[in-house]
Hints:
By secondary structure, this protein is an all-alpha fold. It has helices at 19-28, 32-52, 54-78, 89-110, 115-122, 124-131, 137-153, 162-188, 193-214, 221-246, 251-258, 261-273, 279-301, 315-322; strands spanning 3-6, 13-16. The radius of gyration is 21 Å and the shape is globular.
Amino acid sequence: xxxxxxxxxxxxxxxxxxxxxxxxxxxxxxxxxxxxxxxxxxxxxxxxxxxxxxxxxxxxxxxxxxxxxxxxxxxxxxxxxxxxxxxxxxxxxxxxxxxxxxxxxxxxxxxxxxxxxxxxxxxxxxxxxxxxxxxxxxxxxxxxxxxxxxxxxxxxxxxxxxxxxxxxxxxxxxxxxxxxxxxxxxxxxxxxxxxxxxxxxxxxxxxxxxxxxxxxxxxxxxxxxxxxxxxxxxxxxxxxxxxxxxxxxxxxxxxxxxxxxxxxxxxxxxxxxxxxxxxxxxxxxxxxxxxxxxxxxxxxxxxxxxxxxxxxxxxxxxxxxxxxxxxxxxxxxxxx
Length: 336
């Protein structure tokens, strides 16, 4: 928001910084690495708060509240037009469906297993995308390290629910598809309107399931308030922080910092939910964190083909590019 005042001569309006610009300057003063870490903490604390709602609204009802409020926030932020082209509509539909299924599977997983374990297993989705198609032997080692971490989590003693592990693996598969669809959506849209529409579709899928499971209990004022907080912690805050950070740090550094997410999830589960992991489970979390960071670093350092020389864009194309609004960070639009 920008306030406008009139100068003494009354000739023309002079812009004056409002609250939004002050907040933007304050956000810009924070180091980008700190912004990424705060965004990660926000997402995992939001997931921990969401798990506390399960006793009132159930896992399905919590997903419904989280996606509904996230859709409302994004719709108000981007105000998308319902008119989608034939190239955009199938991607938006698929994106919304995958987003809904991913959240449903993830929340069903954390209803059965600790948050840190669920996020660690789910992280295999983006890790598999990072390793997909690689022929380097070192990437094979990262894949084996991640597999060792999952085997440590799936203990034969039965103390960890295999159904919960299965839901987390399903969420991981959806997260991998979500990343691929993010790239497809980004190539067909220039702002967050497609994301807002996809979130609305996800909410349309999740809300009937949540109402059927939780009934009117999810409409209690306290439950609605916590659901709004979950949506803000899981969507608005990390989205803003990571988008600002990506303007100032290379994607390689961003990816390495994001590799801390399973460890932060384990700490959030311990601090908020009292979910203490055993030493073997902490070792598994460290294996997946190391594999993700190593795969990100090795992929960023691999040689790439030189790009073809091309003519500079025309003045009209340059103006069109500068008018584009920023999109969501890769691999982390509001997913949980």
